[in-house]
């Protein structure tokens, strides 16, 4: 935690001149062009770690906003598509009467890709092309730039003329869409490794990380977490060398973090 904290403080200090990153001090930021847009929410505010908006180009921002909303909506549907069959079961009847294929014969997750008939994939692709070309429910001559996400359809119980309520709901849609994009990618990854969208660790018997799953630092909720794959070769000596380095860096970072914070709170010697 301290290693992440001290790097954040260095970054904020470099931009704002304050370890606490007072946004009001960073007057030269091109991101200020977008700090009042939808999706700017606590605790991060306007968050663009990759720097897509650093040039302050409004047209590019609007195009990316339209894309973000679309991807978020698809991801929310995809996430529910993974979860719902696990909880409620499948539809009764046949997916393809001609092929004698029932809905219950289609497995959940990535395994379903090889089970859907070719004609079904043609329908899926054609519908996706229709959505891409028309905006989904209505034609948009400006590609939704004037009103990102507005496809010409007013969902029952959600559409409103109240501007404040509409803004709140659109912010909620963006937040949920962002969460869903992370969720569906996580499900794909877990499904690919374990054969289950829920990522049952017991099913991933070939993982070299099992050599280290009882080591210090293996904690809930992530368990043994090595996203970069440093330990995928199962080399114990390399693991021990990295553990020594991690502890040393952690201790230095804890001291450095307290060195930033303490003078702000207690004053100087």
SSE inventory with pairings:
Blueprint: H1 2-16, H2 58-88, E1 94-96, E2 101-102, H3 118-134, H4 163-194, H5 236-266
Helix pairs in contact: 1-5, 2-4
Summarize the structure in short.
The chain is an all-alpha fold and 269 residues long. It has helices at residues 2-16, 58-88, 118-134, 163-194, 236-266; strands at residues 94-96, 101-102. A hairpin with a 4-residue loop joins strand 1 (94-96) and strand 2.
- Give the biggest beta sheet: 2 strands, antiparallel
Task: Determine the mean pLDDT.
Answer: 81
Q: Please tally the β strands and state the result.
A: 2
How far apart the termini lie comes to 27 Å
Descriptive notes:
It is a single chain. The mean pLDDT is 81. It contains five helices and two strands. The longest helix is centred in the middle third of the chain and has 32 residues. α1 packs across α5 and α2 packs across α4. With 269 residues, it is mainly alpha-helical. 7% of the residues are buried. Strands 1-2 form a two-stranded antiparallel sheet.
Keywords, separated by commas or semicolons:
two-stranded antiparallel sheet; flat; 269 residues; 47% helix; mainly alpha
């Amino acid at each position: 935690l301290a290693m992440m904290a001290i790097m954040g403080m260095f970054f904020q200090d470099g931009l704002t001149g304050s370890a606490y990153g007072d946004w009001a001090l960073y007057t030269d930021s091109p991101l200020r062009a977008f700090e009042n847009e939808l999706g700017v929410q606590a605790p991060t505010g306007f968050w663009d770690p990759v720097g897509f908006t650093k040039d302050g180009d409004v047209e590019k921002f609007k195009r990316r906003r339209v894309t973000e909303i679309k991807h978020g909506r698809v991801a929310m549907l995809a996430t529910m598509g993974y979860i719902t069959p696990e909880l409620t079961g499948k539809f009764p009847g046949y997916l393809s009467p001609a092929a004698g294929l029932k809905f219950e014969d289609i497995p959940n997750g990535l395994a379903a890709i090889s089970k859907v008939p070719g004609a079904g994939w043609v329908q899926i692709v054609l519908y996706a092309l229709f959505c891409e070309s028309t905006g989904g429910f209505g034609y948009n001559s400006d590609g939704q730039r004037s009103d990102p996400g507005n496809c010409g359809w007013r969902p029952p119980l959600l559409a409103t003329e109240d501007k404040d309520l509409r803004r709140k709901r659109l912010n909620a849609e963006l937040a949920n869409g962002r969460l869903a994009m992370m969720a569906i990618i996580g499900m794909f990854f877990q499904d690919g490794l374990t054969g289950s969208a829920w990522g049952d660790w017991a099913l991933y018997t070939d993982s070299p990380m099992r050599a280290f799953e009882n080591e210090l630092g293996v904690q809930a909720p992530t368990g043994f977490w090595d996203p970069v794959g440093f330990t995928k070769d199962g080399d114990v000596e390399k693991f021990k060398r990295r553990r020594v380095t991690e502890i040393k860096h952690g201790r230095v970072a804890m001291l450095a973090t307290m060195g930033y914070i303490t003078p702000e709170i207690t004053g100087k010697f």
